[in-house]
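User: We ran a pulldown and think these components assemble together. Before we commit to crystallization trials, I'd like a predicted model of the whole complex to look at. Sequences follow.
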Amino acid sequence: MPPYTPLDLLNLGDGFPSASSHPSLYFESLSTLTLLLHETHTIGYLLPSIASTLRDPHLSGPHWSSNGNTITLQGSTAEERSSNIHATLNLWRAQHLFRVLDGWRDELYAVYAPRGELLFTIERSAAALFGLLTYGVHLTAFIHDPAYPGGLALWIPTRSRTKATYPGYLDNTVAGGISAGYTAFETIVKECAEEASLPEVLVREKAKCVGAISYFYVRSEGAGGESGLLQPEVQYCYDLDLSDRRDVVPRPCDDEVEGFELLGVEEVKRRLGEGKFKPNCALVILDFFVRHNILTPENEPHYLEIVARLHRTFEFPLR
Amino acid sequence: MPPYTPLDLLNLGDGFPSASSHPSLYFESLSTLTLLLHETHTIGYLLPSIASTLRDPHLSGPHWSSNGNTITLQGSTAEERSSNIHATLNLWRAQHLFRVLDGWRDELYAVYAPRGELLFTIERSAAALFGLLTYGVHLTAFIHDPAYPGGLALWIPTRSRTKATYPGYLDNTVAGGISAGYTAFETIVKECAEEASLPEVLVREKAKCVGAISYFYVRSEGAGGESGLLQPEVQYCYDLDLSDRRDVVPRPCDDEVEGFELLGVEEVKRRLGEGKFKPNCALVILDFFVRHNILTPENEPHYLEIVARLHRTFEFPLR
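Assistant: Here's a predicted model for the assembly, 638 residues in total across the polymer chains.
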């Protein structure tokens, strides 16, 4: 199966057809789905099994209205809608309806209406059941050093072998979801301390937001829970240049990470090709490689497709 | 009208609705257009006036077949198709059918089938008549210097007052279209010499491709010729960091540019807000600002929309 090309990695992380580049494929896929609506806005895509569960008040409670191929969550305020969806999730857990909820995190994600207005909050592990757009932060710590082939080396962690999702896979230096109420920057500062023991003062001074990637992931086995769940995501990307702070060495702090290695770009490319990275983390590395002139129009035949597709636009409102 | 926000600038440069973020608007726009097809692939969008001209062999020659809302250029090889479309353009010029052809450049652009195969070449000034995707290179030369507010200054040229398109507007340090047969890198090297007198050795060593932007421009008055012509574009973006080469100063060489100024980021922002930049050059600066942590999630409310829409995916095959 390996080696994976950059385009293979992109297809693994961004598996749902795009309306812009492949309109027919997109509408074929969409025709099998039910739209989760707020007023006239699509806020999520529902697989048939989940839509039929939501339409059954015995399984999901009375908080859902259905009309043709659309379903709406009832409630006139964010509080009411949050409480209603939470009640549904409690019913589902009691009935053991969806395995993905075994990974319950007790962490709330925010779902937005247009203009960044809060629509409701939802338990993190449940977002993919509704095809809801979620947000995270990923940071790449690196050094410029001619001793490494390619002149650049990245701090790469191995995920803990006991993690429910992608155990033992490689990851970005630091990564985390943005919980409801948090900014991107405060999230990266917090995660840098928790996952990599990076000093807060250093992170606040030197971590720079340099873009965002967006992709529509169709969950595979490795993600845990049901396969095929729809997971559109945005990740704010941060660079942390430690070239002049060689004394700073990421170390595991919580139990998320087994250890860190400083890997030259050629070694990172090799492990990407072997499929060793968590799928969305591979996309963050591809974006890093583009911005740092490692993937170029001269050495990557699918350069333009990769650069554009790393920045997918969604029908859903953004935060 | 001014000041323009970054989102206003994006809307000026990327005015055609997107299938991904606004499917209904997109299909409403598309329903007024005719598709230019190659086999089953859409390679361009035709306005009604242009489609009806192509359907009339007295106006456009015999090289076009029409079927429902699609039109195909005849010819079984790239040479034959190029020769056929050139014959049509000669007829149109003789009849003075389209004002945009007054800007005839004697420069050939390449149009691609899937997998980068050459479909045909076409005179540059005619590409927008067929809504064909074209390619260019834009370079931003800059210095890091704490003397400037924001710590960064960009070399910004003013376009010649005698240019047919956007006379007197501000531009990127160097920019140019990619002619048929040229690579992106060879184009930027050539344009750096022609437009900014930058030494070839320096450019080859220090100009780095750091991504690409893509957008669907709907031509306005300033672009010259008919308004409303459809112009989807990809621009490879290059950074040229001159922080350690303060002796290098861009100077006009050909007659494209009136002069260069070194402007701090706050001054660049002010002039962007005043609408002084050529629309697509403003988008290159927004991308530069994102990559250099000048536009951030904290200071730009539409950050995610801007980052994603600067990287539009198209239905058309890519080079």
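The domain at 33-129 of chain B is CATH 3.30.750.160 (Transcription Regulator spoIIAA). That may be worth checking against your pulldown data before setting up trials.

User: Thanks, that helps.
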